[in-house]
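User: My instructor asked us to take a sequence, write out its structure as tokens, and then describe one feature of it. I'm not sure where to start. Here is the sequence I was given:
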Amino acid sequence: MTQSEYFNRQIQLWGSQVQQGLEKKKIAIIGAGGLGSTLAQALGTSGIGEIHMIDFDTVSLHNIHRQIAFTLQDEGLNKAKTVCKLM
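Assistant: Let's start with the prediction itself. The structure tokens for your sequence are:
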């Protein structure tokens, strides 16, 4: 599948120039908890060129039930690195 096919709906919505512009974007997300991890997944699948995750916290048991990026196996791991593995 080509990038044009993958992003076909977005290209239809706002055009190929805008989609190509997304590929050149670099963003940083501070916090890889509930909001940051969800935002990273959404932006990662939209075609943003480079995403940097910043979070020095680790996944705790109390995070797992309310943050979709983490599983029981992630307990104790760095949140930012764990989210990056999903992307």
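For the description part of your assignment, you could build on this observation: The longest strand covers residues 26-30. Try explaining in your own words what that tells you about the chain.
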